[in-house]
Amino acid sequence: MVDSPTSRPASAVSTGVGLAGLAGLAAWVLVARHYGMDGPSAGICAVIACGVPMVLWSLLVDKVHRRPSTGIDWSNARPWRETIETSAVKLLGLWATWGLIAFAYMALNWYWQGPYPYVMNLLGTLAPWLVALSIPYVLWLDRYLVQPRDGAHAAGLWILNGADRPAPGAVAAHARAWGVKAFFLAFMLAVVPGNFAEMIHWRDADIIGHPVNFASFLIALLFTIDVAFATVGYVLTFRPLDAHIRSATPHLEGWVAALICYPPFAMMGTGGPLNYQDGTRDWAYWLAGHDGLLWAWGGLLALLTGVYAWATVAFGLRFSNLTHRGILTHGPYRLTRHPAYLSKNLFWWLSIMPFLVTTDSPATAVRNTLLMGVVSAIYYWRARTEEKHLSDDPDYRAYSDWAVRHAPITRLLTGLAGSRPRMHAQVVPSE
User: Fold this and answer.
1) For the chain, which terminus, N or C, has the lower number of CB atoms within 10 Å?
2) pLDDT at residue 428 tops 80
């Protein structure tokens, strides 16, 4: 056993990269609101305005491309003739993976309903460019990679079925990583335009002086920040940015816990088995006529949304569900290991108030409350599956041990649960 660290372990992401993204996004929001630009392309431009400053900060200030965790050795460029065969196999695996993703997008009706057709057309327009640019990118990067035979290379070998077979589990790991990216990138790109337009549609005159409108605008703005940063994270999974996917969770329960929170698998929406909004009205309805309470309640909801967005901003370029892309210890992660889940669930309880219904039915109120409790329990389950995945990394074990003893919210919850802080055993790496 080892003693808990008294100093907070270093974070894989700096505070500056998130601030750079916020500055770029804020500039674009001001321009878009001034000119009333609310179309889908304006939403995508918000993602670009958020991502470009973060890339520049990461490379020029944090110099993430020089970190050993990238797996790149810039001082040891191999000759082209030594890497060209590996690169060709890797490109085969990469293009085959993209082809399977494209087939899934075309075959599944879900991706041609609602906001998804815009995303499918966008990806279809970009696809030839991505294929063309992947050739010089892979040829260039493979000359510097310490271990160029990655998951894409394993997929290529598997397709060729040659004598040189991929390492056991490498193809599955590759498939999991690209499965996460394919599913969540399409979802985020579908969410971005509508979310951005909702924020743009708010008029200044309607916001000022009205507690419900003011809180609603702040919440819309904060969700715009959240989805922009999250989308950047799913796009920029590149090794030179040290933002590559180290691993996607191999645990089935982790996939189940996450996917049932997102459409088309979501169980919490209208008609779903965990719909907790039968006969409910939101906080503004129940507190109407009490301006002081409306200001206080709206402020609290905006604060919780701010913590949720802050948790995403803290990822910088690395936000992603179900994956390990470096351990965060800064921002709200100084307070608790799961700030997003905690703030999101508190927001739902306080904004929906499932225990209050317009039907005057105690049974409906009890059922809503129980279902909301189940939803919160699912997020607790998600948190535990993520901890299980990340606990393979000694950096996460060090952070988790520190948080149990020093992160104030984690300490409080641990005390309320009546559990003793659990220390991870020290792992000695094998040679």
Assistant:
1) C
2) no
